[in-house]
Design goal:
The chain is an alpha+beta fold. It has eleven helices and nine strands. β1 and β2 form a beta hairpin. The termini are far apart.
Amino acid sequence: MIATLATVFFDPLFWVVVLLVALQYRRMAAVRREFFGLPGAGGVWRDTLAATGYGLLGGFLGSFLMVLIGLSLTGSGLIYLWPVAILLMLINARFLCFAYAGGVLSLSNLLFGFPEVHIAQVLALVAILHLVESALILASGHLGAVPVYFKSPAGRVIGGFTLQRFWPIPIVALAVVGPAAVQQGVAMPDWWPLLKPGVNGDAKDLVYTLIPVVAGLGYGDLAVSRSPGEKSRLSALFLGAYSLCLLLLAVLSQYVRGLAFLAALFSPLGHEMVIYTGKKMEFLRRPLFVPPPRGVGVLDVVPDSPAWRAGIRSGDVVLFLNQHQVNSRPELEMVLANVWGPVEVQFLRGPEQVFHREVVFRAPGRPFGFVPVPDGSEEVVMDLSTAGPLGRWWQDFWRRIRR
């Protein structure tokens, strides 16, 4: 399996996916720079290299699981997944996910007999990819969080972070070669495979081979009432539980037709439940990044900036700059416009609000390096809508009808 994974480094498609991942991190850096005037932390290529490393580990995990349960791509009908996923993306960008396409294809097969897909294989693939994604979110979902201002469901401007990560995933998959005609190979246990192959014949009499497959995974979320680390861990827990339930249903669906319907419905609806529950839990709690009773709250800090070297971090409260008290964003901007050279900053650190006083050097013309929490006067907020062209058309159409 490791030897097969190594061959992806000679596959041009793998490097195309790596390039696409790099372009996504470049876009995120541009958003960070344009929205707050902050440079991308760490550099685009360092983020891409880290994502590739995590993707290789995730690919090994996914490959192990696929071989363990005997998930074969032969005769599964996976060729239909991408076209359906792209069509669904026209409704909403978040539907560019195999959880929705796999559910639609499986239901269509059960109800109409078309297209010819192996339901258990398709849904098991969806489950394993999401299980790998949950592991990657747990390990690195919080990295590179981008500070944003946006409107809450109540219409209030609040601060938070968008969590966006992308990983190139090389995976080793099984393919059926044909009936056993040679004695060489690896003898599998009697219980293997858990998933019946999508070809005729007894699975125990078939010969399988390993083939490399290149894919990409992405993660998007919001952290409002939790830190990015806490939010990513919670998202990983929900997504992992969803993946294990879907995998169990996929295996059992081979034996009970009713469970095949349940698995096909659970694939998209369970994914929607994960997203809805995560957002609901996030907005039910009090937002973390709101104006404090005194001073200016800190949403994010630029690494290696004067504010960073002073020890200021997200969630702290800045009280004084060179003995000038600051209690609002306009006051902060006015003071910073005239503060250069050695700067004494007084601030409260962490949830315990421990008082600190530090002196750092600020070069003329250079930013001090932190983003304040919104105070409600911000005119520019991030649009969190993910509706696609068809989704926007339907929203406009429904709005005209209601009028």
